[in-house]
Design a protein that fits this description.
single chain; 634 residues; 6-stranded antiparallel sheet
Length: 634
């Protein structure tokens, strides 16, 4: 969610400490803020400061710029009334920050009371009230049919023991686990995250043994906490995330992906049940057709032929048989047929012939071998391994990706969508507030790159060729579309972006690569995901020489990174789920080229169509549309 003037937020515990700092930081972005707190005098003081900051954005506004509501957050009725008043005053709610918290002043094993200083009161304020506020906020978002963000304030003591206050640690640990269990709400556009700073210099922290804080590394700057909060609010991919903030290590997500693998349930096991409505009456023939490469050349039609092959049963152990419904066409299909992805020696290339063609497909599981866990016949799945241009495909079960539907739009999320999602995160290190250029942006992967860059809060520039493609990119929200058929890309970049481009997602190669490199800003990242302009040269793909490349990137501390999807296989399912969630919530559009290619015999036509430069979005071959229609009816 991009923080911009006109949005509104509720901050509990906003009169002091972290809550106050976050209230003021939101006001500096032009947000209307309601402060809910038990301390009236300090709450009103903070509200006046928020209003003063906000006046810079809303000088002529008839609405109040900030509001303080006295409330004991443990009183559910008063809390609900406070949310209702906020909505009535500001017309809605976009962000809820639950910052109210206290420490337990009495050792729990000595405390037998229910008073203000009891450990039970700490549990009520720090945990039960957070659950209550989160519930009310979610109900508020749903009632208005708008996306929203809840940010709960946990603590580093919720991640590891705090021997001086086990009740505080217990409540914050509860907040962490509660928040991280609310990931499913992201399908409705609602994200709930938790921020876990170590000791911050607030009124609460002064009650802790100062010598202990010193030994722990000292206080975390409040500015770092604000930065972490804004990162969780801005980043659409961070649903259910826990951000740990330490003085010595900075911002770090907890747990790490490696740690998560130790306890996360295999998504196949949990999701397979949701696919039980799909017909399992799939006919398995004795023979099927597939495309194989029989000679090495970049000309796909010349390199391939259709082969009818026998389907041997039973299925191999730890394998599944997938009935292909749709196969994806990629620019690099011609690199595959020329043997570039196997190249160790010319002799080695020829020794592999013939081999199956096609990189990606979606379909239904038609049969399962022994020792396959979590997969069922009839499940919709995706496969990203060689042999996608076929009616049936035998795939090791460990390489199967779960998909919610075997549709062309889901197919587009595979090679094309995953390349954009993972490359921007891992190779480009994309942040918010940057200028991002995507070349060949109206293609299969470009359409994802421009949208993900926009969702991350960046200004997006895109190149394409033709009015239809330009119109598509404008529909996707691109800030500046450069149609190279009517404008000179180099001139536009030099004139309109004199400070340079922070990130370039480049897939064209040749002269376009040179133009992008020369337009790269200081500290900029240029990610090469392909070079389609060089793939179909008459005498084959010859590497180009980029004279002075090292000197250029050295002079401006720039990074030129290559990205090849097969080296990030461990991230495929995570990013595929993320893309589908964005698509389901309406935040991501998927364009499939309207030109129809049906059956194995149309694959060569589809490959040539993609390389003609006329395609828009993802080019798909419907291997068996009949089965797809039957499943859709069911």
């Amino acid at each position: 969610m991009e923080l911009k003037p006109g949005l509104s937020a509720i901050v509990t515990g906003g009169a002091n400490g972290i809550g106050k700092a976050l209230s003021l930081a939101l006001a500096r972005k032009g947000l209307f803020v309601t402060i809910i707190d038990f301390f009236e005098e300090k709450g009103k003081e903070t509200a006046l400061l928020v209003e003063e900051e906000n006046r810079k954005f809303h000088a002529d506004s008839q609405l109040p710029l900030a509001m303080f509501i006295w409330c004991d957050v443990t009183n559910t009725r008063d809390l609900a009334a406070a949310f209702q008043k906020h909505v009535q005053t500001f017309g809605g709610l976009d962000i809820c920050i639950n910052s109210a918290g206290i420490v337990c002043p009495i050792s729990f094993y000595k405390d037998e009371t229910d008073g203000e200083d009891s450990w039970r009161r700490t549990v009520q304020v720090n945990l039960i009230a957070v659950i209550d506020c989160t519930r009310i906020a979610i109900d508020t978002f749903k009632a208005r049919g708008r996306p929203g963000v809840v940010l709960n304030l946990g603590s580093a003591s919720g991640l590891y023991p705090l021997y001086t206050d086990p009740i505080y640690a217990a409540t914050k640990g509860g907040v962490v686990s509660f928040t991280r269990s609310l990931v499913p709400f992201k399908r409705e556009g609602i994200r709930v995250n938790v921020l876990c700073p170590e000791f911050v210099e607030t009124d609460l922290a002064v009650k802790v043994d100062q010598e202990f804080i010193k030994k722990s590394g000292g206080f975390v700057p409040i500015e770092m906490v604000v930065k972490g909060a804004f990162e969780l609010i801005n980043d659409e991919s961070k649903a259910g995330k826990c951000l740990w903030i330490t003085k010595h290590r900075g911002l770090e997500y907890w747990p790490t992906p490696e740690e998560e693998k130790k306890y996360l349930v295999n998504p196949r096991r949990s999701k397979s049940r949701s696919s039980s409505h799909i017909s399992t009456s799939l006919v398995i023939p004795q023979n099927f057709e597939k495309i194989v490469v029989h000679t090495l050349t970049h000309n796909f039609r010349s390199a391939t032929k259709i082969l009818r092959t026998h389907l041997s049963l039973p299925i191999q152990s730890q394998h599944v048989l997938v009935k292909i419904l749709h196969a994806g066409v990629n620019a690099s299909d011609v690199n595959f047929t020329s043997g570039r992805y196997f190249k160790s020696s010319e002799k080695g290339d020829l020794s592999r012939l013939p081999f199956d063609a096609g990189f990606e497909a979606v379909g239904l599981i038609a049969a399962i071998g022994d020792s396959v866990d979590g997969l069922k016949i009839g499940m919709p799945v995706a496969a990203m391994s060689f042999g996608g241009y076929a009616e049936f495909m035998l795939v090791p079960s460990k390489h199967i990706l779960w998909v919610p539907r075997p549709d062309p739009e889901v197919l587009a999320m595979l090679t094309s969508g995953l390349t954009a999602s993972i490359a921007l995160e891992k190779a480009a290190h994309m942040e918010s507030g940057k200028v991002v250029l995507v070349t060949a942006a109206a293609g299969g992967t470009g359409q994802f790159a421009v949208q993900l860059a926009k969702l991350a809060g960046n200004k997006v520039v895109a190149t394409c060729g033709g009015q239809k493609k330009a119109a598509m990119l404008k529909e996707l929200g691109v800030d500046r579309v450069i149609d190279y058929k009517t404008e000179d890309v180099k001139t536009v970049l030099k004139k309109e972006f004199p400070k340079g481009l922070d990130i370039v997602y480049e897939s064209v190669g040749g002269e376009m690569f040179n133009i992008c490199l020369n337009a790269l800003a200081t500290y900029g990242h240029l990610v090469v995901i392909g070079m389609i302009s060089q793939y179909q040269e008459e005498d084959g793909w010859k590497p180009l020489t980029y004279t002075g490349l090292c000197e250029k990137i050295l002079a401006k501390s720039q990074t030129v990174a290559g990205f090849f999807l097969v080296q990030y296989v461990d991230l495929w399912q995570e990013h595929l789920d993320r893309l589908f969630d964005l698509y389901s919530s309406g935040k991501l559009q998927v364009f499939v080229d309207p030109k129809k290619f049906v059956g194995i015999s149309s694959v060569a036509d589809a490959v040539e169509y993609l390389h003609s430069g006329e395609s828009i979005g993802k080019v798909v071959v419907s291997i068996d549309p009949t089965t797809h229609q039957s499943v859709a009816k069911l």
